[in-house]
């Protein structure tokens, strides 16, 4: 391997820049030429590929988003698109790729390897933390800290007006953003898609907690069957005298400067990804399991597994008295 390229794909996540920097600098450290592919797989298909050096990734570790841009590429989903992508790879003598993204990105990468002879290593870049093969994904820690900051602010106003706030957070089909941010903001309840919602228990908890608290906060994961507005309606119809408000946090959760944990994670996985390629690995995602860089085949990393630890759901219940 002499020439490698890196791209970011799917939804952006804070820490992707730290990952790009780590891939570029590790490549240079090992004497490789490194290219950057802009706009995810779209740039691979159209040939939007630039040469990267140590300087091109200076002063980006602290920046949110991705300097290489990201995209959802319809063309790469077709065989013709992937064929064009491979022709671009060959014309620049690129020997291997590092792709930073989520399950769609790895599904595409697995197909690309199957059809064309190109080693690819993945790095988990998504705020949702919904991939197997890593305890945490790049961007998750920053996103939950953003949620905690926003909920703390909402708590101030909720407390001043004795309100019940329903706060909807991101996470797609995963409740992991909701669960950890719920614990750390002292939410009275957390509703996640992985668990059946026991509305009777929630109503009782709300009623009981009224004695101890003037504000109550319920965090709802966006993937929950009901969604924040429906949950609010149910509470209002059960307690007509409650002042219930809804806040949907939205894309604020995807931005901002990456946390220390995300910068370290992205740096470790970037080094791991490039060194994995040099060891002859392909078709795997570099992840961190119990503090160690670990490689998991794409087919396993993209399987939707339930990463909810029931210890955490119990904590919400115990501490919300
Ligand atoms: P996030 O979880 O943050 O949304 P993601 O990687 O899952 O990230 P997607 O938009 O699902 O985001 O996938 C990224 C890109 O991967 C797609 O735009 C597409 O180009 C490619 N891709 C996804 N699924 C396939 C597939 N079945 N075959 C080929 N390419 C695919």
UniProtKB/TrEMBL annotation:
This is ATP-dependent 6-phosphofructokinase. GO terms for biological process: canonical glycolysis; fructose 1,6-bisphosphate metabolic process; fructose 6-phosphate metabolic process. ATP binds at residues 11, 72-73, 102-105. Belongs to the phosphofructokinase type A (PFKA) family. ATP-dependent PFK group I subfamily. Prokaryotic clade 'B1' sub-subfamily. The keyword Ligase does not apply. Substrate binds at residues 126-128, 163, 170-172, 222, 245, 251-254. InterPro entries: ATP_PFK, ATP_PFK_prok-type, PFKA_ATP_prok, Phosphofructokinase_CS, Phosphofructokinase_dom, PKF_sf. Homotetramer. The active site is at 128 (proton acceptor). Mg(2+) binds at residue 103. It is an enzyme of class 2 (transferase). GO terms for cellular component: 6-phosphofructokinase complex. Pathway: Carbohydrate degradation; glycolysis; D-glyceraldehyde 3-phosphate and glycerone phosphate from D-glucose: step 3/4. It holds the Pfam family PFK.
């Amino acid at each position: 391997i002499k020439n490698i390229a890196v791209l970011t794909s799917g939804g952006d996540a804070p820490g992707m820049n730290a990952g790009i920097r780590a891939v570029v600098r590790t490549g240079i450290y090992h004497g490789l030429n490194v290219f950057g592919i802009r706009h995810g797989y779209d740039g691979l298909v159209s040939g939007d590929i630039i040469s990267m050096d140590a300087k091109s990734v200076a002063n980006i570790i602290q920046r949110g988003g991705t300097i290489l841009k990201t995209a959802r590429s319809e063309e790469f989903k077709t065989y013709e698109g992937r064929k064009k992508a491979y022709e671009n790879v060959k014309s620049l003598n690129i020997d291997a790729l590092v792709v930073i993204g989520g399950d769609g990105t790895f599904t595409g990468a697995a197909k690309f390897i199957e059809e064309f002879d190109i080693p690819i290593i993945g790095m988990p870049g998504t705020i949702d933390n919904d991939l197997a093969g890593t305890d945490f994904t790049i961007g998750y820690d920053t996103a939950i800290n953003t949620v905690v900051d926003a909920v703390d602010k909402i708590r101030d106003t909720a407390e001043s007006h004795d309100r019940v706030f329903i706060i909807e957070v991101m996470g797609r089909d995963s409740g992991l953003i909701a669960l950890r941010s719920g614990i750390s903001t002292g939410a009275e309840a957390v509703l996640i898609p992985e668990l059946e919602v026991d509305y009777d228990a929630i109503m009782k908890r709300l009623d009981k907690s009224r004695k101890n608290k003037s504000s109550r906060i319920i965090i709802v994961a966006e993937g929950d069957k009901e969604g924040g507005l429906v949950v609010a309606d149910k509470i209002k119809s059960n307690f007509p005298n409650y002042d219930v408000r809804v806040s949907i946090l939205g894309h604020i959760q995807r931005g901002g400067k990456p946390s220390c944990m995300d910068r370290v994670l992205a740096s470790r996985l970037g080094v791991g990804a490039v060194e994995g390629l040099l060891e002859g690995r392909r078709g795997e995602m570099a992840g961190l399991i119990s503090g160690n860089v670990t490689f998991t085949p794409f087919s396993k990393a993209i399987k939707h597994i339930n990463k909810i630890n029931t210890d955490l759901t119990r904590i919400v219940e115990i501490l919300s008295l």
